[in-house]
Amino acid sequence: LLFLSCIFQMDTTQESYLDLFPLDAIVYLTPDSENGKYACFRHTGTRAKVYVLGGLVDESIHKKLTLQRAQEQSLQTARLPIREYMVKTANTKNYHSETLAINQVFDVLSTYYETRSWPAALKAGVSSGKGYGLPDAVK
């Protein structure tokens, strides 16, 4: 797992995030979250949020596993706002997926941190192979 704090500090560890941070500071990023109004890089009170990026090898076998894990641990969840800023594109496989690899999520988050623009961030991290594009690019 990769931990990303709002001040853009990143670390990896073998320790559980549950042992390292208070529950109310943890946001588990999962494409299955209903929370698309993503509040990344905003502080709540005096405590910054810590974002957990999880990784799965096969999204079709483990559907909603990350959401279920977060709910079992009573954690807040969020997803990248792909549905809010992007549109489905026509493609030969009729394939559309909001599930991204960890490096793609990191690219989105780091670009958002730099630009504060979700369209720019999503363009940087969501490949056309996912079946989504920005509205102005699809026309």
Automatic annotation (TrEMBL):
Which class of enzymes does this protein belong to?
A: transferase
Q: Which domain of life is it from?
A: Eukaryota
Q: Could you tell me what reaction this enzyme catalyses?
A: guanosine(9) in tRNA + S-adenosyl-L-methionine = N(1)-methylguanosine(9) in tRNA + S-adenosyl-L-homocysteine + H(+)
GO molecular function annotation: tRNA (guanosine(9)-N1)-methyltransferase activity; tRNA binding
**Enzyme Commission identifier(s):** 2.1.1.221
GO cellular component annotations of the record: nucleoplasm
Keyword list, A-Z: Methyltransferase, S-adenosyl-L-methionine, Transferase
Q: Where is the SAM-dependent MTase TRM10-type domain?
A: 1-133
Q: What is a biological process (GO) this protein takes part in?
A: tRNA N1-guanine methylation
Q: Which PANTHER family match?
A: TRNA (GUANINE-9-) METHYLTRANSFERASE, TRNA METHYLTRANSFERASE 10 HOMOLOG B
Q: Report the protein name in the record.
A: tRNA (guanine(9)-N(1))-methyltransferase
- Protein species of origin: Burhinus bistriatus
Name the gene behind this protein: Trmt10b
